[in-house]
Amino acid sequence: MVSQGSAQLDALETDQTGNASKREPGQRRGMIQITPELLQEDALVVSHVSKRFYKQRSIVSRLRALGPGQNRGKSVGRVVRAVDDVTLTVKRREIFGILGSNGSGKSTFIRLISTLLVPDEGTVRIFGYDVEKDERAVQRLINRVSVDAAFFKKLSPYENLIYAARLYGMPGAQARKEIYEILLRLGIKPDRITQGVENMSRGMQQKVAIARAFLTAPVLLLLDEPTTGLDPRSKEDVQVFVRELRDTHDATILLTTHDMDEADALCDQIAIIDGGRIVAMDTPEGLKRQVGALEGKDGPVTLTDVFMHFTGRDWDDFEGEEEDEERDD
Questions:
Q1: 85-107: b or e for each residue (b if 16 or more CB lie within 10 Å)?
Q2: How confident is the model at residue 64 (pLDDT cuts 50, 70, 90)?
Q3: What angle do CA 152, 158, 164 make, to 5 degrees?
Q4: What pairs with residue 123 in β-bridges?
């Protein structure tokens, strides 16, 4: 584990020099310094983590419980174990995929890693830092893209990104240059870069959220269904960017997705989560070989086949299901 001494705290001071362009060990990236000690740690270590929520029953169910002949002491809610005894390790520079249906617990899992929720049980460490004890240090190491991204709606994509760049200590000249390059590469036209985000489609807003995450070059990037609402060309652009961030900026990526082709193309390792528990974990090819052997298939096996095997259900069975946890505003 990384030492919690003064040397480590010094490595997390805000960059006042503005020299964030180099990505070599010992150099600063935004608000942090990438030290050899930091890079010796696993990117993410999750040990026996669980998270429970209390979910109220519907008004109709509660009224029925108060009717004649009903047990009036009956509970008006139930406990939902959104994440149930999850243990995994993500190595530095891996692209690690989390596959699961709506309500499976994957979004709660991402929130636990990003310090938005506190585990009821177990521990989460990011490059040696505990998400509870070292919350501020963890927040400087990560960035998160959610399917429902939050912005200053009245501001333009450029203004939202320049604000994020300043929070992460990026020098103005570097930030302005990279903002335009990233937005243009993601297919946002020059005349839209300075228009209000509120006037953009959901798909275009998602591109801005992805651009904001790429701009700050986090050491651990959390992508929670990042390509939802994007057209096929835009999805491909994002996938290229994800690989580039890993290869050129030494980043580790944790990805949740419903897109089987995307997971197969991007991920080094995949965990399938169902009912809050990990039911399978291996490389994409390893999972497909395993299911092929178990089911005695001679032909090719897809990740969809893998999902159906380990959960007993197809993706179509989950249409219309609600998340057990609330979405971000």
A1: ebebebebebbbbbbbbbbbbbb
A2: low
A3: 65
A4: 47
Q: What is the pLDDT of residues 206-226, one digit of tens each?
A: 888 888 888 877 889 999 888
Average pLDDT, the chain: 80
| Helical pair 157-167 and 172-185, crossing angle rounded to 10 deg | 130
pLDDT tens per residue, range 146-194: 767 678 888 999 999 999 888 877 888 889 889 998 898 888 889 899 9
- For 191, which DSSP code? G
Spans of all domains in the chain: 6-318
**152: its two tokens:** 């200053």
- Find how far residue 232's CA is from the centre of its chain: 20
Please tell me the distance from the alpha carbon of residue 122 to that of residue 139, in angstroms, as a whole number.
Answer: 19
- Beta carbons of 212 and 144 less than 8 angstroms apart: no
**Polymer length in residues for the chain:** 329
pLDDT exceeds 60 at position 74:
no
DSSP category for residue 74: S
The superfamily (CATH) of domain 6-318 is P-loop containing nucleotide triphosphate hydrolases (3.40.50.300)
C-alpha–C-alpha distance, residues 97 and 32, integer Å: 26
Q: How far apart are CA 172 and CA 198, in angstroms?
A: 25
CA–CA distance, 207 with 51 (Å, rounded to integer): 30
Do residues 54 and 324 make contact, with C-beta atoms less than 8 angstroms apart? Answer: no
Q: How are beta strands 95-99 and 77-90 bridged, if at all?
A: unpaired
In sequence order, what are the residues at sequence separation of 6 or more whose Cβ sits closer than 8 angstroms to the Cβ of residue 18?
169, 170, 171, 174
Please identify which residue in the block is written with the tokens 């159906």. Answer: 308
